Amino acid sequence: MTRNKHTNKKIIFRLIKDYIFPHKFKIFLALIMMIISAAATGLHAWLVRPALDEVLIKGNKEMLFLIPIAIILVTLCKGLATYTHSFQMSKVAHLVISKLQSEMFEKLMFFNIKFYNDSKSGNLISRLINDTYFLRMAIVKSVTGVIKDVLVIIFLLGNMFYQSWELTIFAFFAFPLALWPIKKIGNSIRKITRNIQKEIAIFSNSLSESIKSIRQVKAYNRENFEKQKSFETINQIKDYFIKSAFISNRLSPLMEFIGSLAIALSIYVGGVFVLNESMTTGQFMSFLVSLLLAYQPVKALGNLNISIQEGLAGADRIFQLMDSEDENKETDNFKEKLSVKKGKIQIKNLNFAYENINVLENLNITIPEGKKVAIVGLSGSGKSTIISLLLRFYNNYDGEIFIDNQDISKYSLKSLRDNYSLVSQETILFNQSIQTNIEYGNLEASTAEILNAAEEAGVNEFANSFPNKLDTIVGESGVKLSGGQRQRIAIARAILKNAPILLFDEATSALDNLTEQKIQNSINKLMKNKTSVIIAHRLSSIEDADLIYVLDKGKIVGEGQHKELLNKCNLYSKLQLQQELNL
Asked: The pTM is what?
């Protein structure tokens, strides 16, 4: 419990210091408006006394004219003040959440690949959307509610003391009884909210996976399996929400009962005071109206604790992501830029293990400048890992990687990746137009350059058959296009980037032979005068390579050209035989 209190204080202090305090002027304006609104509520209650004593009992005609005007003016002031402070605090809440979401997204963009390998996308999405929703509501309700409701209670309490301090003491003896259950219920709600947020994250992840894998789901007749899996999570979320409602709704009848005690006691004692003529009817009614008006903000403060606890649970998960270990960040401590003029790559004595499993062992590879070099081998031999290390997706390797005699680990990450164009087996396209997806390779490219890249990659061959041509929306992950069409867009993207080093990671392995031959023409255009590293299963796509390395279990077991390797490397000849059998 002590640890949770300490954590709550740290979260609240951090929210106020880093996210709420920068909007102090907006909050100050809202505070002034809250004071005016609360004072107007107190003034409404005070006006009951002259309305009864001066108008109804003494028959004062002047007051009969003035009091209704006063009530209208006070109501107008209260309405304007309430609108202003509500708008300002909503604006502050949206600005705070916008900043948090921006910082979280920025953090996610600069996490390393290992973090994403170990994380679930649904969980990350839930923190960006669901957790921030709870926090948004908590900021709006807590800052506005706490300050405004407390001010309203203070003004009403002031009027009650002004009318009769003795009666005020009698009326408020019951309210301290509510403090313990309010606190207890709030703590329970926070625990349940944590569980709800975790389950929503699981559901988000399951939903994302099911939708993205819908072809596999249907192909394997797994609709009912996915349905059952999601239903279990949905029912778990439902149960937590029901439990939350079961606990939180106890507060309302409790506050109703405590309020009725205060009102009943006030009517009895106040009635005695009026009968004894120690209090006028107007005083008593003004006091009673204040008490009745105070009941709602007191009840709201009780319910407010629930919203605050929900918000704190969301903030806790948000800051857990924001405070992730530095080991999750991509290290880029160097400012010096890598300069690539020739594109010669040297890999020396390279060792790499992932999750304590050796992937590459004492690897030595030289890729001459401007040459087409292929790396082939069985699945799991470490081919794609080499691409990942060239791109510095992982830095925890032993050995050295040089480009033009420059150790890539000692230069800025951005300058390194600016010198690569990557075309991979899994072509990821954004749910935008074909042209926008090509432009991703160089956001500063002119329209003419984009059109030229599309022409060279053969994109126009299929794009022109669409009504909107290059403005055609490709669908999520390019679902509206074939594998070959997606690959051509990826190649056009690489052409547009015009980097001196090309990386092909199984770029044509998922295509049929005829489509592969067509795309190979586009690839050959892209490779002209560039250093090219090709990871391949199919030997047909790399037969004309200047140099081929054969990789087996993280080690080089052969190197040379195609015909040479057929005669001297057993693994390479087996791969060739396997390919011929599959034709």
From this structure: 0.68
